[in-house]
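Office hours follow-up: a student asked to see two folded examples consecutively, so here they are.
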Amino acid sequence: MKPPREWGMRSRIVGLTSGSVALIAGGALADSMWLIGVGAWTLIAAGLLEMIYRP
């Protein structure tokens, strides 16, 4: 397995997106607005990375 610094940007974007989906779903199930907020900001960060580092 490659060290994290050698992973591609695509895998980081996918990781951020899947993490944000998990946070938003967990926040919706737990009725926790701060989890939904963190998930939303993580999704925004993934979108910005996708726009900036387009392969």
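And the second, which I mentioned at the end of office hours:
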Amino acid sequence: MGHSGHPPHIYNGMPAKHLGTEGWQKPWSGTNGGSCVEAMKLGDGRVALRQSTDPEGPALIYTTHEFETFLQGAKQGVADFLLASD
């Protein structure tokens, strides 16, 4: 929480711990030993992402439109180049 009990100003790169511990989910976790991306839907519809191995590290904040575009593109395979080995 911010000053006087008000929620903190939410901005890209803010410490993820300032968003609290409740509401984080691991939709992409698997057999990777717990190292995964965690996501939280914020009250204003934006999406926060953090690295599970660094829960107090920076949070990336995306608008609803940005995250919808990312997910649609990922489903269509446009990010597959990130997984391709050279």
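Two things to take away from it. The CA atoms of residues 73 and 79 lie 7 Å apart. The radius of gyration is 14 Å.
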